[in-house]
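User: Can you fold this complex?
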Amino acid sequence: MDTFRTLTTGLFVGSLIISFIIFILLILISKKKIHLLDGYQDPQRRRYLLSSVLSMVVIATLGLKLNTDYLEEERIVMCDGWMLKQKDLKSDACRPQSN
Amino acid sequence: MPVDPNQTDEIFDIVIIGAGAAGITLALQFAAAGIKTALIEGGGYQHSDQSQKIYNGFNEGLNYPLDESRLRFWGGSTNHWSGWCRPFDDKAFVPRPSIDYPGWSIGSEQLSPYLSKALDIIEIDPASTWQPEITHNNRSNFYQALLESDFNEIYFRWSPPTRFRYKYIEELQQDDNISLSVNDSLINFEYTSEGEILGAVLRNLETHEDRTVYGKQFVLACGGIENARLLLHINAENDVDFGNSSGYLGKYFMEHPHFYEAAEFVMIDTVYKHDILPAPTAPWQHMYRFFCPTDNFLKKHKILDSTIRMRMYQQRKAMLSSIDGLSAITTLSGKDKWQAGVLDIVVEQPPLVTNAITLSDETDDLGLHKTILNWRLTEIDYNSTRQPLLAFAKFLVEADLGRCKLASWVTGDQEMPEPQPGMHHMGTTRMATNESEGVVDTDCKLYGTKNLYIAGSSVYPTGASVNPTLMLIQLAIRLSEHLKKRLSE
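Assistant: Here's the predicted assembly.
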């Protein structure tokens, strides 16, 4: 797996895990299960946590998008006898001459 | 031609019929051991049309150059071989029942002791390696990617090539134990009813007079096609079945189909040329790199072995059939730095009973029935060609090493073209552990006879995807060791 794909996959999986952990923490805080975090009973602080969950979800989505776009670009295609990658087809010269 | 076994005449310890690579190798071993040997060649010391014409025959399958693919004079086909050498890989010896691949009745360990001597005969430094150690630092991106691919790199070495005619004739002519004769063609054997060969009946090509050479042990070393043809002819003449109780004499002919320019490629010009190979110890001692599919790939696709060559164009702008892939590669490299070339492939053929040599009713100048060769390719040949090419192209593209334009027959859009033969004739007197499965035993002795041996590539049960000459010399040296033992018993 190359660096870019590793990075974007890491971004997606990492962000999802972090957002999930914060989300669980939020639930536990709201149910007053973790006394060490009682300071987060403050609605303002809970909103910060909630927005960080949402941010993480956005970052995960971005990671996923970059990853799938990359995979699409790297997809091997046959074009007029040439074995190319999808990204090569952005160039007009790579399109089949019969078109 | 059955005769009285008490008949007396000059009797050689060994009679070798055929002075090509195998026959001369055998004679050299017997000369060194002081064994009285007759080395008999059907052609002359020089090429002649009259002798070469004996090789004319007919094709029933694909067009095969029966006359041009081998030479009928002293030195045999070493007079035109190119010198490519590589020992067979272990996988050629191992049976694969899923695709009816028989393997060999002997293992590679029975041939490797003779490798060094064989290399010496064809003037390759025996100390040279077949897999140079290239350090990590000396490896390009190409080879880093190759390590994770479905392909291994393999290396060939080159003989100068050794022309046996010039290299060994004086040595043999001056040896008192070696008796050379030319223009004498085998037309029959004298033998007892127990299958002991007593004499080889020879017909002179020019005078058409017959004579018999007597010996204790006989070796037929006339080449992958001629060994079978002569035995079929002699069997038919005498209404016997020497080596043919299985019905396999002449069957299982194998070649190495060559497909040139199966794909064009363009590559970033820095990815391939950074490997540092060992310096050649002589001008011809350089190594040549090929790529062959891994064992797992072969098993997964149920195909036979192959070797792929990346042949670089010297003039990069001289070649591409279309340039629509170039912008891709120039985009890839970020600059106009690329090189181009083609992929060639050589494929191992499955041993098939239908690929066979039979006899024509028409006879040649010696009165021998002419050869009919039925050589065809089957689905496994096509798959063994297409699958590795597609996978190799994918490897280049996937790792962003380059881009490939595949011939339309590779992608399946067109029928496969006729291959070019490698002029490698194999398999027509195949080795097997019992006579119901083959023609010669593991010592290369012809089943049904007591003292007739076969030397050469006709005994190969499988042909691998590498050139056959080195292996046949290894086998000839092994046979000489066996015959020395038999003579001393």
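Chain B is about 20% helix and 25% strand. The CA atoms of residues 60 and 101 of chain B lie 24 Å apart.
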